[in-house]
Amino acid sequence: MSTYILLAIVAIALYGIFTYNGLVKARQMAEEAWSGIDVQLKRRADLIPNLVETVKGYAAHERETFEAVVNARNKAISVPAGDVEGRAAAEGLLSQALGKLIALSEAYPDLKANTNFLELQRSLEGVEGEVQMARRYYNGAARDLNVKVESFPSNLIAGQFGFAKKPYFEIENPADRAVPSVKF
């Protein structure tokens, strides 16, 4: 009888170890995924000053639009690391402001033909695609961690060792979900 008890204890201990390691792996995957989003959003933020300067040369009287883009960019890059909801909201505002900036090119045919603007536009379009892929990857990693944190019996180990759910990187305002159109 004592052999069965010993086997049960070993089995429970092994289950606990495997579950704990699975939770650690899931948490690390979510953190790595968030890092991927952060990198892509930084690339986008780095493109914005060049884009604004290029457009300024053609549309100097559109100061309000430029200020909105710069303010939204500054707000987005100032969100504390790890604040997924805050970053999502700030990035949504930045996407709206960028959409307005890109729309200015319709009123300025010379700007639409400017090679620097076209190159920046292509770069922005590429970064937007990378942001979307990074977002999907992060949300998948967050989902996997959240399932483990909430599922029985792994939730018992998750609770004991302080594993918490990760928020999804979602944009709350449906208007912010639209990627800025960069087609000409």
Automatic annotation (TrEMBL):
TM helices/strands, residue ranges: 6-24
SUPFAM superfamilies: LemA-like
Annotated membrane topology: Single-pass membrane protein
UniProt keywords, alphabetically: Membrane, Transmembrane, Transmembrane helix
Any Pfam family: LemA
GO cellular component, one term: membrane
Compartments where located: Membrane
Family of the protein in this entry: Belongs to the LemA family.
Protein name as it appears in the record: LemA protein
